[in-house]
UniProtKB/TrEMBL annotation:
Record protein name field: Probable inactive 2-oxoglutarate-dependent dioxygenase AOP2
Record's keyword terms, sorted: Dioxygenase, Iron, Metal-binding, Oxidoreductase
Record family assignment: Belongs to the iron/ascorbate-dependent oxidoreductase family.
Keyword Oxidoreductase appears in the UniProt entry: yes
A family per Pfam: 2OG-FeII_Oxy
Family matches, as InterPro entries: DIOX_N, IPNS-like_FE2OG_OXY, IPNS-like_sf, Iron_ascorbate_oxido_reductase, Oxoglu/Fe-dep_dioxygenase_dom
Tagged with keyword Iron: yes
One GO molecular-function entry: dioxygenase activity
Fe2OG dioxygenase domain span: 165-269
UniProt source species: Ziziphus jujuba
Amino acid sequence: MGSQTHQPPQIPVIDLSLEDLKPGSASWLPTCNQIRHALEEYGCFVAKYDQLSPQLSTKLFSQSKDLFELPVETKKQNTSDEPYRGYIGPTKYMPLYESTAIEKATVLEEVHKFMNLMWPDGKDQFCEVVDSYAKLLGALNELTVEMLFESYGLRKHFPSLAASNSHLLRFLKYKQPQDTETTTIRFAAHTDINFATIVHQNDIGGLEVQAKDGTWISVEPQPSHFLIFAGQGMQVWSNDRIKACYHRVKVSAGNGERYSMGLFTFNNGVIQVPEELVDDKHPLLYKPFDSRGYIRFYISSDEAVKLNNPIKAFCGA
Ligand SMILES: O=C(O)CCC(=O)C(=O)O
Ligand SMILES: [Fe+2]
């Protein structure tokens, strides 16, 4: 009788650096299918993406550190008409967490506007570094979603979705716990309410994703590794073939400060389940989904947050 070792599940790593990753190339369809399989199984995957170099990552995280060192009054000036889009300081529930964000970050003028607000006298390299970084992550998001659509035979639907996308770039920092407490959850388990998210961790990990069997899988940082999550918008579009990924962040005392980045892709239009994704095994689960209306519903109502399945309450068929 052989002994059985139980291997914890691993998040698939998919190489999206390949130069010929274009429709019609030998690697295109197999990679599209890998993306679909990973998203259907885990709601996420790790993209290896060398186009965003380790040098650019180092420069980006150095700018992020400078940003968080600004006085809190300056950081608070980054406000937004919409909730969760500006500066978020530490709270009772998340005392070590801080973040700030640039809306429409793939547009250079928006990066400029943000820089002028934070550093009225200018800031060396901020705009060029953040602009290159945001554009590369935006391109990684578009490539992933186009390839996912292709794997369902629905690439024709991609341009109209992409035309109403916008990208929010969030800088995140977690201070290390002062006491000797052991590893603690610092960002409670949740799914993202947008369409898709890319998370990039600096040298300190902590991000965990939940597998279908309920186990938590930790995702180790690597300079050219980017974790791509399905959000609730992707869940609706896919008619539940893909489930929004549950994830959380744990931080340990003694590890140092943790920095990460998130590119949140929002769809600002109405998402409709493609008729090709509706059949006897997959009856239609959602009415046309107004993403921004959903965010207003989700944020404005205390009840929505408590609902087991707010998206079904909002637009279930
Ligand atoms: O801090 C991280 O690495 C992830 C944060 C996150 O999940 C979020 O902002 O939605
Ligand atoms: Fe998240």
